[in-house]
Design brief:
Structural class: mainly alpha
Order of helices and strands: HHHH
Number of strands: 0
Length: 106
């Protein structure tokens, strides 16, 4: 699947071992919302749970076209060093260049 990491740092043998054991999950009634060892409390908790999604990036007025482009390493390093949103800054730089170089059509 695209976007998934090819390597995992999860210790799957430990996960399987823990899942197969009957050791109770640690529970502190002072801090935990429900007892994870009590199926009725688990069902009650999740039946009233609400999914809350973090707000994503606002939708752009125009949709950008995904492409593959080859850039010089120093250009990529420069823009990446400016932090998150570096690809949008490359797009803005190209828009600025376009404004000074109008397209001449025959």
């Amino acid at each position: 699947m695209p976007g998934l990491k090819k390597t995992s740092q999860t210790d799957w043998s430990r996960v399987k071992q823990d899942a197969a054991s009957d050791v109770p999950i640690a529970y502190d009634p002072e801090t935990d919302l429900y007892d994870p060892n009590d199926p009725a409390q688990v069902a009650d908790f999740f039946s009233s749970a609400k999914v809350v999604r973090k707000p994503g990036r606002p939708k752009a007025a125009t949709t950008k076209v995904p492409i593959a482009i080859r850039l010089s390493p120093d250009v990529v390093e420069y823009f990446k060093a400016t932090g998150a949103g570096w690809q949008s800054r490359i797009d803005a730089a190209l828009h600025e260049w376009m404004s000074g170089h109008p397209l001449k059509r025959a």
